[in-house]
User: Fold these one by one.
Assistant:
Number 1:
Amino acid sequence: MRKIPQQLIPLAVLFIVLLGVLVVARQLFVPKTFGDLGHYRATAVDEVAAQPAAYAGYRVCLDCHDDIYQRKQLSSHAGLACETCHGAAAAHATGESDQLPTVPRGRDHCQLCHGYNSARPTGFPQILSNMHNPGEACVKCHDSHSPRMAKGNGECSACHQMIANQKAVSSHMSLDCTDCHTVPIDHATQPRVVQALKPNSEETCGKCHARGSSAGAEVARIDMAEHGGRYLCWECHYPHLPEAKL
Amino acid sequence: MNEQHGQKCDFVGMDRRDFLGAVARTVPTWLMVTAIVPELLAAEAGSPDEKYRPEEHRYAMAINIHKCIGCGRCADACKTENNVPREPVFFRTWIERYRVPFEGEAVVDSPNGGIDGFPTEDHDSGTFKAFFVPKLCNHCSNAPCVQVCPVGATFTSQDGVVLVDKDYCVGCRYCIQACPYGARYLHPTEKVADKCTFCYHRITKGQPPACVEVCPTQARVFGEMGEQASPISRFMRFNDVTVLKSWLNTDPRVYYAGADEEVR
């Protein structure tokens, strides 16, 4: 057997020591489950999966709110999950939090979906906010759990449907027909013989639009004595859709 | 030959006839025991399906661009569900609006990821067409981010979801650079890479991802690719689907229906 050269012996020792250091370092620094499933820590998967959920899912909601759910399922909002509008509710469902889910009532929330945007799919119901009852809350007319057409104007809309629809999206939507029109009781049975009357003075409009009226600040005001001369208001303005440009 | 075989059996102390007899007597008993006992044990331990087996799943998401109304509820829900910082530069999912002019390049915008809605111009004259495209991590089968990670902190799990090991990430940002879809960001406080996990904590418990849960128009579909009757399989059958940047061979698991050629 050939003799091992002397200079190799310390080198060999050094290599063995380094190898030992490497083995120890690997034991110390490489996580236990690293490489079990691939080039990663296998337990990291469980750590990611352990994150708590904030959204409970609609099935949890209908344990208690089944009545609302059933109503919603018959409407065009059937595809909406409860938490789409009411926000994450897992803490509410489990009782961890006393805080109730949010109930959005402002116009801004509904407009996230229903405000007009040219990029939305054709046919999706959208409104132009400044033309659709400006300032009013959507829930005043629409039930968000059953969002059909807004409530009609009772018996008048049976014949005057087109006017009712126009008025429904105008700033006059909260007015009743009889606020402006004098309607004899027989008009419903003999509409041609007994006619409903249009306002015959500026006083009708002046109830809200005169300078000194008690209507809300958002209502436009004019000087009734100066404005319009000998014409009645509705001879220039269309009261069922005042926003319309004649 | 037969004689030899018989002799071979002799060394365990029985001939072939005895051996076959013994097999005929014991095997049915043994089969019954092995079939019944684990079930009994599992029944005592609780539901047998409680343990999640990642190797039995293959997840995918599909997005129908024709159905997206750009309401941004998905991006908002994602931030809530996953504690994504609210600053308008950190997103796991977001919505882009594409406006294609009659001539020239499409204009893409995504103000706050679409969470607060998209501003509308009074006149969109000059716009030929416009649509919304929800974006998220594509959970590529050949994920560039996984390839470049120097420490093995980002990886593809057995069920096909690309995840980040927060404890192991060193925050080098290589993966953020590598992602062709811009789906990753560096978490401003944790200083680690963060991205969509398909809501891994939800899907492993049988719930849909938060964005899919809240989508009001079912523009997002999620499910098991391997099952014939799953929502995603159904969607893939009835729609012409494509993937983003298919020429990169990343093989995404997020599929798009109705994606125009402008969509990148």
Number 2:
Amino acid sequence: MIIDSKYRKVLGTAATALLLAGLATPVLAQRDPAYAAAREAGQVGERVNGYLGIVGNATPELQRVVDDINNQRRQVYTQRAQAEGATLEQYALTAGCLAIARTTPGEKYQAPDGTWQTRTAAAPVRDPRCP
Amino acid sequence: MIAAKLTKGPARAHKAAMRGRLMDRARLVVLLGAIPLAGCITLEAPDQPIVIELNINITQEVIYRLADDANNAIDENADIF
């Protein structure tokens, strides 16, 4: 009976550990289908300033998707910039560098001169300060 | 006896019209005044649109310092990037 209770304790600890690990691991959520589709279609692109931009004609629906994501991004940038002792603009520009670098061929991104470019297999045209 | 003395010499009631040397000098002044106009800097509008770089004061050093954390931020918020 002693072994049983020990087992129970071990199992209980293991279960707790698993539960905690599950809670601690961030949920790597997927892009919203509307956002993913707009991105793939080249209707939205990564801007130099770390936010999404509308490439062609803006529709109210597209504007809503972009605004929603940009608001969420600003929230992330603000929190992390504060933790890093940086300004929102500094953090956002850094994230912009990286987000443009992470675009896949066919996706749109903004070049330092403000023009929209389509990502090819080659490296994107980025700000010379980008890492 | 104290004599009254004019502080300024006597002058004609009407000035004579500019003639001769006086007129030449006036022309010279006008000509000299016109010379700097020829040396004016001409400004031409650029062909390309003017892009105002608002983030020009952000240094590369800062971007490099923040890059690691920003990479994590993108990974952890993959749904909005």
